[in-house]
Design brief:
Blueprint (H helix, E strand, L loop, with lengths): L8 H7 L5 H14 L3 H7 L5 H12 L3 E2 L1 H6 L4 H4 L4 H7 L1 E7 L4 E6 L5 H11 L3 E7 L1 H13 L10 H13 L7 H15 L4 H4 L11 H16 L8 H16 L3 H13 L12 H6 L1 H10 L2 H5 L7 H8 L21 H17 L11 H10 L7 H11 L3 H6 L5 E5 L3 H13 L3 E5 L2 H8 L6 E4 L8 H9 L9 E5 L4 H10 L3 E4 L4 H14 L9 E4 L5 H10 L4 E7 L2 E8 L2 E7 L2 E2 L1 H8 L5 E5 L13 H14 L4
Parallel strand pairs: 1-4, 3-4, 5-6, 5-7, 7-8, 8-9
Antiparallel strand pairs: 2-3, 10-15, 11-12, 11-15, 12-13, 13-14
Helix pairs in contact: 2-3, 11-13, 14-15, 14-20, 14-22, 15-19, 15-20, 19-20, 20-21, 21-22, 22-24, 24-28, 25-26, 30-31
């Protein structure tokens, strides 16, 4: 490893005509004065741009490069990261980006792709047969490690000069040398109060800001300031932002309103204000330790008091003040139990505990747990501490992206139509466990929008749905070609005989009154579908490229050994990629064919996609592996090469 970079680099650049002898002397003087790698001295002085320098290095080392922009956007799965332990990644400045299980090949981005000793250490740690090394900017590789392993959300901002200036300016405003939780929170509260009092809808971006207040900027500022407070604690750096992301995902999965979603995320960002101490207070720690319970008794109101001037949404305050309640009762502060505990507090308790278990080695187990282990702990302490239904839903949420799961599975798609988020969560969980893919609609209008798409295999609907009821929805469906034979089950609190009679007259397959066991209902659904001759089979999956980028889709289909056609509809044009057991056989995009068409589609940022598993490719026109195609496509994108 070269702690100051390859000493020959400056000479190579001069010989290659990319740097003058005078510039070389300035670079060497800068490096000697400030220390660090020679690449950073070159970039700091503006002698070369990053892409120009990386292209030169990639050509010199006979490999490919990965830009800072690509590293900043990279979403690396946990299994790949765990191939290289964090300590080794930091020691070697090596960031894992891809693992091909079929060939046992690990791809890493490093500052020194020619360092055989470094690559051998990585290979041994990962137990990989092969290691492919790509070159990246040294500080960018370190930032990727800090972000992906340590949760440092500002790691890449420090590489951006303008962002760094803004960061420094903000620190000056908040008296850089005198920052504390209280002063930071009071300053934030004062600024927000001077601007205006926020409504939940405005915080969620649900309405215009009549006085010109930028609520998105408020939320971003909140994230940054909380991160600064946590910056002095390596074990909790980035914790609150991570909890907010988890709470956001889970609340969206449940289907709460935009204002509730915003309030719960704000509570997640603020939940540790005023509570910093030797041990992190979570629902688990407080629930099992009398010492931590005593601490929580004195601090549970701290976030609300510190942010009092902002007039937070009441849902956020409820979540903050009740996050240490126990689902089984006897918690803090009011000994509530079950669903008497505010929904936001139950969500926050689960997400905060999970984040602590998976990212903080000072948790009750004295080590960081993986996702499966942490979810096991949540299940073990439900229903004593946590809402068991929300724990089950959370496990499905963190176990993998739902779109990825759909791409890899062949399942019936069910639509649940009900206005009650919590009640439908239980049924959704049981159906997912039994192999269904589940969509949820909260109104007749939302249900019709999904039904008209023609992908739904079975409907489970309540009658009481607001202005337009479930009877009207069923009647509309039976009058349409897509709904004449669609299996339909009414699940409702109505028990009157005339309601059941009307449901059957309109064509319902069954009428069930609440409450009903989720497992029993799933059994009924399967029996109905079997009678209708709707056996499980391969189905198409669709989505947007904003939801999942084309490189990620290709990797999922490749590793899942899927066959069929991936169809792309984008503003730039339409295209197709044909797969046979995960291998790319052909690609078409506009007038382009083969690999050139594939490379052109890698650059697409917007549009829709659909997977047709029934398509059969008859002739192979592309011989390159999916990995090779992706790497070459991304290289061309980095270098601005037209396919």
């Amino acid at each position: 490893m070269h702690p100051t970079g390859n000493p020959k680099l400056a000479e190579w650049l001069v010989n290659g005509g990319l740097m003058s002898a005078e510039a070389r002397e300035k670079v060497l003087s800068q490096q000697q004065l400030l220390g660090g790698r020679i690449e950073e001295a070159i970039l700091d002085l503006g002698v070369l741009g990053e892409l120009e320098l990386l292209k030169f290095l990639a050509n010199t080392y006979r490999t490919r490069f990965v830009s800072t922009e690509k590293l900043a956007k990279a979403q690396i799965d946990r299994a790949t990261l765990e191939k290289v332990p964090k300590k080794l990644a930091e020691q070697c400045t090596a960031f894992p980006v891809m693992y091909d299980a079929a060939s046992a090949t690990l791809s890493v981005v490093v500052a020194d792709p020619d360092d055989s000793n470094l690559l051998r250490q990585v290979q041994m740690a990962a137990r990989a047969k092969h290691v492919k090394a790509f070159v990246g900017r040294p500080l960018a590789v370190k930032a990727a490690i800090a972000k992906n392993y340590g949760g440092d959300i500002h790691a890449f901002a420090r590489l951006d000069r303008s962002a760094h200036e803004q960061f420094s300016s903000m620190m000056d405003v908040f008296e850089r040398n005198l920052v504390s939780e209280e002063s930071m929170a009071v300053a934030l509260a004062g600024e927000a109060a001077q601007e205006r009092t926020l409504t939940p809808e405005q915080i969620a971006g649900g309405g215009p800001a009549s006085s010109g207040f930028d609520d998105s900027a408020y939320r971003e500022t909140l994230k940054v300031l909380v991160s600064l407070i946590e910056g002095g604690r390596s074990d909790l750096r980035g914790h609150s932002a991570h909890v907010a992301r988890l709470v956001g995902k889970l609340s969206q999965r449940i289907g709460v309103s935009p204002s509730q979603h915003a309030a719960y995320c704000i509570a997640a960002l603020l939940h540790d204000l005023g509570k910093m101490g030797e041990h992190h207070l979570t629902a688990l720690n407080v629930g099992v330790s009398e010492t931590q319970r005593a601490r929580a008794q004195h601090t549970y109101t701290a976030p609300g008091r510190l942010m009092e001037a902002v007039k937070l949404p009441h849902e956020a305050l409820d979540a903050l003040e009740s996050m240490y309640e126990r689902f089984g009762g006897d918690g803090l502060p009011g000994q509530r139990s079950g669903k008497d505990i505010p929904l936001g507090a139950r969500l926050l308790a689960i997400c905060d505990t999970y984040a602590d278990l998976t990212r903080n080695a000072k948790n009750p187990f004295s080590k960081t747990l993986d996702a499966e282990e942490a979810c096991g702990v949540l299940s073990r302490y439900a229903p004593a501490l946590f809402d068991p239904n929300l724990v089950e839903l959370f496990k499905h949420t963190v176990s993998g992206d739902s779109l990825k799961a759909r791409l890899l599975s062949n399942r019936h798609l069910a639509l649940i139509v009900d206005t009650d988020p919590e009640e439908t969560t239980v049924l959704e969980l049981r159906m997912i466990e039994q192999g269904f893919e589940v969509h949820v609609a909260r109104s007749v209008e939302a249900a019709l929008k999904q039904l008209r798409g023609g992908r739904i295999d079975v409907v489970v609907s309540e009658i009481d749905l607001g202005a337009r009821d479930g009877f009207g929805l069923l009647q509309e469906a039976r009058s349409q070609s897509w709904g004449k034979q669609l299996p339909w089950v009414i699940v409702t609190r109505r028990t009157a005989r005339q309601d059941a009679d009307r449901a059957f007259e309109l064509g319902a397959d069954d009428y069930v009154t609440k409450p009903i066991s989720g497992d029993l209902l799933v059994t009924k659904l399967k029996q109905i579908m079997d009678r209708r001759g709707r056996s499980a089979g391969a189905r198409g999956v669709s989505g947007s490229l904003q939801e999942m980028g084309l490189p990620d889709i290709v990797q999922v289909l490749w590793h899942g050994r899927k066959s069929g056609s991936l169809k792309i509809h984008a503003p730039e044009g339409n295209g197709e990629i044909h797969f046979v057991e995960g291998q790319v056989y052909n690609a078409l995009f506009g007038k382009k064919r083969g690999a050139d068409a594939f490379y052109a589609m890698v650059a697409l940022q917007a549009g829709d996609f659909a997977v047709d598993p029934g398509f059969v490719a008859t002739q192979r026109m592309i011989e390159e592996s999916p990995e090779g195609l992706l790497l070459e496509g991304l290289r061309r994108l980095d270098e601005g090469v037209s396919a």
